[in-house]
Amino acid sequence: MPLRIHFTAEDLARTRLAEGLRPMLELDIAVRLLQEGSHPTRFGPWRRESFRRLSPGARGLFDLIPPTGWTVGFLDHATADTMDEVLERVRSTSAADLRGDMETWAARAGRQPVPAWTRSLGSDKRLLAELADTTAHTYRQIIAPYRRQLDTLCGADQAMRRRQLTHHGLHHLFSRLNPRCIRWRPPVLELTMASGTDGDIHLSGRGLLLIPSVFGAVYPAVDDTGDQPWLTYPVGSGETGDFLLPTDTARALGTAPDSLTALLGHTRAIVLWTIAHRPSRTTTELARLAGISPASASQHATVLRTAGLVTTLRHHNTALHSLSPLGAGLLGTAS
CA–CA separation, 134 vs 90, rounded Å? Predict the structure, then answer.
């Protein structure tokens, strides 16, 4: 049975897209992914590099963020905007809250007894400070080195989602968030959870916050305990649920720098310059903006994507082109 989220008209009016990735939520999902080892083709190199970088003490964080199920409450700051905010909240957790969160977590997860080292968390502030430092270390080693790329992929995805919402409405957006695991049967979203959790969530006028995730590439995560419930969806999910993120005139956008033209040639430089200033455009729109034929735009975009300067998302039978971190760096140098 799925987990069901029930909407009213007021909930639909208050549903919104989050602005970018949430660092602790992405860390939480990444820590789970490290432990359960799925999707070796997609995440294998990252997983191997992450384990190489992590100190042995990071295993303590793994105890509190299991492969499936609940994260301990005082680490559950999924909607925080920055890691500094997360770490400040963790360090300032009261002893009473720590003990209560551990008891609740153990009961939910069926963990009896809880890991032995956690039993002193409520009375030893030094231990809590060490856990906060471990959380910061883990983020620096497995998320921060890739943050620029993650933000670029997320930006391209969110531009696609905004197009879906603007051109086709909320029904279209819901239907394509994650077709394998999220199904829209108005007025209910049905979720297939990794843990097999089922039941009903009634939003009751609070709406829903839709949060993108790169590491949450298959199953959604959901929370109903805050002021506004939230749900994750995979960045780059296409019409079938496949993970599709890739391994006006041009004159109005300004002129591509001479150094870029010398490197790429005039037309290809204009195409890259156009993509940088008008991201997530279709090939037809790119051709119009650059003043070239669609066939030429497709050819140049393919060359730029192969060189790693551009990323392309597939939406229906169209391609949406955006600048990659490497392309942004090249433009910054050329400018």
Answer: 11
